[in-house]
Design goal:
The chain is an alpha+beta fold and about 90 residues long. It has a single domain, classed as Winged helix-like DNA-binding domain superfamily/Winged helix DNA-binding domain (Arc Repressor Mutant, subunit A), CATH 1.10.10. A three-stranded antiparallel beta sheet has the order 1-3-2.
């Protein structure tokens, strides 16, 4: 990864991959989770913040299980983008 080019969906390939990973779509066609944990300094953090700004994820405060890092959840709009990004 490491490209800033946007897809026809308006997100970078990294952002599409984060949405799909958060939903567990790499293992098949069914969603089996909806969370992604990352924090400042991580390679994925800025991408997740951009997805929040785009309304494709929501950010929740971190807790003990996330090591204090924020937990991101994919919105319905984000799910639609993740599904289309697979094609």
């Amino acid at each position: 990864m490491g490209t800033d080019s946007k897809t026809t969906l308006g997100q970078t390939p990294e952002e599409i991959e984060i949405l799909r990973h958060a939903l567990g779509l790499q293992r098949g066609s069914r969603e089996f989770r909806n969370h992604f944990v990352t924090g400042p300094g991580s390679i994925d953090y800025e991408h997740c913040e951009a997805l929040v700004d785009a309304g494709l994820m929501v950010k929740r405060a971190g807790h003990a299980l996330s090591g204090g890092d924020p937990v991101y959840h994919v919105t319905e709009a984000g799910k639609s983008v993740a599904r289309r990004g697979a094609s």
